[in-house]
Design brief:
By secondary structure, this protein is α/β, with parallel strands linked by helices. The chain is built from eight helices and nine strands. It has helices at residues 13-28, 41-55, 75-84, 95-105, 121-128, 150-162, 170-189, 195-203, and strands at residues 33-38, 63-67, 88-92, 112-115, 136-139, 207-210, 213-216, 229-233, 239-242. The protein has a seven-stranded mixed beta sheet with strand order 2-1-3-4-5-8-9, sandwiched between helices. Helix 5 links the parallel strand 4 (112-115) and strand 5. It is globular and about 60 Å long. The N and C termini lie far apart (41 Å).
């Protein structure tokens, strides 16, 4: 059901799943994909997104298993996934259980691991340490260290001014962008701001350029960005943008 009183900044989990499956199938010819997901509405939405993306290509998950929310009890999920011997595993969960699942699964299999942005990218890389190299994560905002994008440079300057010890990351960058978007609506409404004015200001604004990140709203479209970026943890522990998975195997 459409929610007309909600304005989304970022691409959806379904779009992240579609990009993952597109890259796996088109870049590497992978057909055996498993899914580990958190047992709640978020995890189910991610599973549905992967299942739909695979179905568009006449494929289905070779295994899918869940873990309980707020838990890192992933051994049952990993056992069932390992049994299917997938070429790739898409993970819809938080950083701690995802990191543990990757570590445990690698004792028996060596697939490509991919996680959606919800995972908490900085925390995942830190949790995995050197073992994180080669793990892919889809993102819905630019790299937090890509100061060639003006809004990222502005974000880093604002973060530094707030807390000189703060570490830039995808989550806080997304929050900064959401704040910048809110300012656009508030400025257009001025002192007479109301819910209707705010929503209409964004819906009728055409293209919104947040200093290098473009958003577009319109009738029946309350999502500003459809951009999904694929990143990989490098040997240096940092995230790097990739345009293709070719060479990953």
């Amino acid at each position: 059901m459409p929610r007309y009183n909600v304005v989304n900044l970022r691409a959806s989990y379904h779009q992240e799943a579609e990009e993952m499956v597109a890259r796996l199938t088109e870049d590497l010819g992978i057909t055996r994909v498993a899914v580990m997901y958190q047992n709640d509405s978020y995890g189910q939405s991610g599973l549905d997104g992967v299942t739909d993306a695979l179905a568009k290509r006449n494929l289905a998950p070779v295994a899918s298993w869940y873990y309980q929310r707020n838990s890192d009890a992933v051994k049952a999920a990993v056992f069932n996934i390992v049994e299917a011997n997938p070429e790739a595993v898409i993970m819809i969960g938080a950083y701690a259980p995802v990191a543990k699942a990757i570590t445990v699964a690698r004792e028996d299999i060596d697939p490509i691991f991919m996680a959606v942005s919800f995972v908490g990218s900085n925390a995942l890389a830190q949790e995995l340490g050197p073992d994180g190299a080669g793990v892919y994560v889809t993102q819905v905002v630019p790299l937090p260290d890509d100061t060639g994008v003006p809004v990222v440079a502005a974000y880093r300057a604002a973060l530094q001014a707030l807390d000189a010890n703060a570490v830039p990351g995808f989550v806080s960058l997304e929050g900064y962008l959401a704040g910048r978007l809110a300012i656009v609506g508030l400025e257009q409404c001025g002192r007479d701001v109301s819910r209707d004015c705010f929503l209409n200001a964004l819906r009728n604004s055409g293209t919104i350029d947040l200093e290098g990140m473009t958003l577009q709203y319109g009738p029946g479209d309350n999502q500003g960005s459809d951009a999904v970026f694929v990143t990989v943890i490098g040997d240096d522990g940092n995230y790097h943008l990739v345009s293709s998975l070719t060479g990953a195997r």
